[in-house]
Write a structure and sequence with these properties.
Number of strands: 0
Number of helices: 8
Strand content: under 5%
Shape: elongated
Helix content: over 70%
Order of helices and strands: HHHHHHHH
Mean pLDDT: 83
Protein backbone atom coordinates (compact mmCIF):
# COMPACT_ATOMS: atom_id res chain seq x y z
CA UNK A 1 0.00 0.00 0.00
CA UNK A 2 2.78 2.43 0.94
CA UNK A 3 4.51 1.68 -2.36
CA UNK A 4 1.35 2.48 -4.36
CA UNK A 5 0.83 5.75 -2.45
CA UNK A 6 4.46 6.75 -3.00
CA UNK A 7 4.18 5.91 -6.70
CA UNK A 8 1.04 8.05 -7.02
CA UNK A 9 2.86 10.98 -5.42
CA UNK A 10 5.89 10.56 -7.69
CA UNK A 11 3.82 10.00 -10.82
CA UNK A 12 0.50 11.91 -10.79
CA UNK A 13 -2.41 10.47 -12.79
CA UNK A 14 -2.01 13.03 -15.57
CA UNK A 15 1.66 12.05 -16.05
CA UNK A 16 0.78 8.36 -16.08
CA UNK A 17 -1.90 8.91 -18.74
CA UNK A 18 0.55 10.89 -20.89
CA UNK A 19 3.17 8.17 -20.39
CA UNK A 20 0.75 5.49 -21.61
CA UNK A 21 -0.32 7.60 -24.57
CA UNK A 22 3.31 8.18 -25.58
CA UNK A 23 4.28 4.50 -25.21
CA UNK A 24 1.19 3.18 -27.07
CA UNK A 25 1.67 5.77 -29.83
CA UNK A 26 5.34 4.86 -30.27
CA UNK A 27 4.58 1.12 -30.43
CA UNK A 28 1.82 1.60 -33.02
CA UNK A 29 4.00 4.00 -35.00
CA UNK A 30 6.77 1.40 -35.05
CA UNK A 31 4.43 -1.37 -36.28
CA UNK A 32 2.72 0.76 -38.93
CA UNK A 33 6.03 2.35 -39.90
CA UNK A 34 7.59 -1.03 -40.62
CA UNK A 35 4.58 -1.94 -42.76
CA UNK A 36 4.79 1.32 -44.71
CA UNK A 37 8.53 0.78 -45.15
CA UNK A 38 8.11 -2.81 -46.37
CA UNK A 39 4.53 -4.16 -46.70
CA UNK A 40 4.44 -7.78 -45.54
CA UNK A 41 0.74 -8.31 -46.38
CA UNK A 42 -0.72 -7.05 -49.61
CA UNK A 43 1.24 -3.88 -50.29
CA UNK A 44 -1.23 -1.42 -51.73
CA UNK A 45 -4.84 -0.37 -51.76
CA UNK A 46 -7.06 -0.22 -48.68
CA UNK A 47 -4.65 -1.86 -46.22
CA UNK A 48 -1.83 0.55 -47.02
CA UNK A 49 -4.22 3.52 -46.80
CA UNK A 50 -5.52 2.26 -43.45
CA UNK A 51 -1.99 1.73 -42.15
CA UNK A 52 -0.92 5.21 -43.22
CA UNK A 53 -4.05 6.67 -41.62
CA UNK A 54 -3.31 4.90 -38.31
CA UNK A 55 0.33 6.00 -38.55
CA UNK A 56 -0.54 9.66 -39.06
CA UNK A 57 -3.27 9.60 -36.40
CA UNK A 58 -0.94 8.27 -33.70
CA UNK A 59 1.79 10.60 -34.89
CA UNK A 60 -0.61 13.45 -34.06
CA UNK A 61 -1.41 11.83 -30.69
CA UNK A 62 2.33 11.57 -29.97
CA UNK A 63 2.94 15.21 -30.88
CA UNK A 64 0.11 16.41 -28.61
CA UNK A 65 1.13 14.12 -25.71
CA UNK A 66 4.80 15.12 -25.91
CA UNK A 67 4.00 18.86 -26.12
CA UNK A 68 1.64 18.60 -23.12
CA UNK A 69 4.21 16.57 -21.14
CA UNK A 70 6.99 19.08 -21.86
CA UNK A 71 4.75 22.00 -20.84
CA UNK A 72 3.73 20.16 -17.66
CA UNK A 73 7.41 19.83 -16.74
CA UNK A 74 7.55 23.59 -16.21
CA UNK A 75 3.95 24.58 -15.41
CA UNK A 76 1.60 23.50 -12.62
CA UNK A 77 1.93 22.11 -9.12
CA UNK A 78 3.40 18.82 -10.41
CA UNK A 79 6.14 20.42 -12.53
CA UNK A 80 9.18 18.17 -12.42
CA UNK A 81 11.78 19.48 -14.87
CA UNK A 82 14.48 19.24 -12.18
CA UNK A 83 13.89 15.48 -12.01
CA UNK A 84 15.14 15.16 -15.60
CA UNK A 85 18.33 17.19 -15.24
CA UNK A 86 21.17 15.32 -13.50
CA UNK A 87 23.42 17.39 -11.24
CA UNK A 88 26.98 16.49 -10.25
CA UNK A 89 25.70 14.74 -7.12
CA UNK A 90 23.40 12.65 -9.35
CA UNK A 91 26.24 11.78 -11.72
CA UNK A 92 28.33 10.56 -8.78
CA UNK A 93 25.61 7.98 -8.07
CA UNK A 94 25.94 6.42 -11.55
CA UNK A 95 28.41 3.66 -10.56
CA UNK A 96 26.16 2.60 -7.65
CA UNK A 97 23.06 2.67 -9.88
CA UNK A 98 24.80 0.53 -12.52
CA UNK A 99 25.91 -1.87 -9.77
CA UNK A 100 22.30 -2.04 -8.54
CA UNK A 101 20.97 -2.92 -12.00
CA UNK A 102 23.75 -5.50 -12.37
CA UNK A 103 22.66 -7.16 -9.08
CA UNK A 104 25.98 -6.18 -7.51
CA UNK A 105 24.71 -3.75 -4.88
CA UNK A 106 21.73 -2.14 -3.21
CA UNK A 107 19.79 0.75 -4.67
CA UNK A 108 21.15 4.03 -3.28
CA UNK A 109 18.87 6.59 -1.67
CA UNK A 110 17.62 9.11 -4.24
CA UNK A 111 16.77 12.76 -3.69
CA UNK A 112 14.74 12.90 -6.92
CA UNK A 113 12.12 10.58 -8.35
CA UNK A 114 14.47 9.35 -11.09
CA UNK A 115 17.97 7.99 -10.76
CA UNK A 116 20.73 9.51 -12.95
CA UNK A 117 20.59 6.66 -15.49
CA UNK A 118 16.86 7.24 -15.90
CA UNK A 119 17.39 10.99 -16.23
CA UNK A 120 19.90 10.55 -19.02
CA UNK A 121 17.85 7.93 -20.88
CA UNK A 122 14.59 9.92 -20.59
CA UNK A 123 16.26 13.12 -21.83
CA UNK A 124 17.68 11.20 -24.80
CA UNK A 125 14.27 9.62 -25.40
CA UNK A 126 12.61 13.05 -25.56
CA UNK A 127 15.28 14.28 -28.00
CA UNK A 128 14.77 11.20 -30.19
CA UNK A 129 10.97 11.61 -30.09
CA UNK A 130 11.33 15.22 -31.25
CA UNK A 131 13.71 14.07 -34.00
CA UNK A 132 11.22 11.42 -35.16
CA UNK A 133 8.40 13.96 -35.21
CA UNK A 134 10.39 16.47 -37.27
CA UNK A 135 11.85 13.84 -39.63
CA UNK A 136 8.39 12.31 -40.08
CA UNK A 137 6.94 15.70 -41.03
CA UNK A 138 9.91 16.30 -43.32
CA UNK A 139 9.18 13.04 -45.16
CA UNK A 140 5.49 13.90 -45.47
CA UNK A 141 6.17 17.46 -46.65
CA UNK A 142 9.58 17.18 -48.34
CA UNK A 143 9.38 20.45 -50.28
CA UNK A 144 7.25 22.39 -47.81
CA UNK A 145 7.99 23.96 -44.44
CA UNK A 146 10.43 21.17 -43.55
CA UNK A 147 12.57 21.31 -46.68
CA UNK A 148 15.34 22.80 -44.53
CA UNK A 149 15.51 19.49 -42.69
CA UNK A 150 15.73 17.38 -45.86
CA UNK A 151 18.20 19.55 -47.73
CA UNK A 152 19.85 21.55 -44.98
CA UNK A 153 20.50 19.31 -42.01
CA UNK A 154 20.57 16.30 -44.36
CA UNK A 155 21.55 16.11 -48.01
CA UNK A 156 18.35 14.51 -49.31
CA UNK A 157 15.15 12.68 -48.38
CA UNK A 158 16.83 9.26 -48.54
CA UNK A 159 19.21 10.16 -45.73
CA UNK A 160 16.26 11.41 -43.64
CA UNK A 161 14.44 8.09 -44.19
CA UNK A 162 17.53 6.13 -43.15
CA UNK A 163 17.95 8.26 -40.00
CA UNK A 164 14.23 7.85 -39.19
CA UNK A 165 14.59 4.08 -39.64
CA UNK A 166 17.70 3.87 -37.43
CA UNK A 167 16.08 5.88 -34.63
CA UNK A 168 13.06 3.56 -34.83
CA UNK A 169 15.36 0.66 -33.93
CA UNK A 170 16.80 2.70 -31.06
CA UNK A 171 13.25 3.08 -29.74
CA UNK A 172 12.69 -0.66 -30.01
CA UNK A 173 15.76 -1.27 -27.87
CA UNK A 174 14.72 1.47 -25.43
CA UNK A 175 11.23 -0.02 -25.01
CA UNK A 176 12.66 -3.52 -24.45
CA UNK A 177 15.00 -2.22 -21.73
CA UNK A 178 12.24 -0.06 -20.24
CA UNK A 179 9.84 -3.01 -20.03
CA UNK A 180 12.53 -5.25 -18.52
CA UNK A 181 13.42 -2.70 -15.84
CA UNK A 182 9.74 -2.08 -15.07
CA UNK A 183 9.17 -5.80 -14.53
CA UNK A 184 12.38 -5.98 -12.48
CA UNK A 185 11.23 -3.13 -10.23
CA UNK A 186 7.81 -4.76 -9.76
CA UNK A 187 9.47 -8.00 -8.66
CA UNK A 188 11.64 -6.00 -6.26
CA UNK A 189 8.54 -4.34 -4.78
CA UNK A 190 6.80 -7.72 -4.40
CA UNK A 191 9.91 -9.18 -2.75
CA UNK A 192 10.19 -6.18 -0.42
CA UNK A 193 6.52 -6.45 0.56
CA UNK A 194 6.93 -10.18 1.19
CA UNK A 195 9.93 -9.59 3.45
CA UNK A 196 8.07 -6.88 5.39
CA UNK A 197 5.08 -9.18 5.84
CA UNK A 198 7.31 -12.03 7.02
CA UNK A 199 9.03 -9.72 9.54
CA UNK A 200 5.71 -8.48 10.91
CA UNK A 201 4.47 -12.08 11.31
CA UNK A 202 7.60 -13.02 13.26
CA UNK A 203 7.19 -10.03 15.56
CA UNK A 204 3.57 -11.03 16.27
Amino acid sequence: MASRINNALRHPLSFRILHELIIVSIILLIITGFYIHRPFIGGAGFLMSLTRGVHFFFAAVLVIAVVVRIISMFVGKDRDWRSFLPTWSDIKLLPRIIAYYAYMGKEPELEKKYNPLQMISYCLAFILVIFQIISGLAMKYPDGAFSWFNYGLFNNEIEVRIAHFVVTWLFIMFIMIHVYLTIREKFSEIKEMHLLTSTEEKED
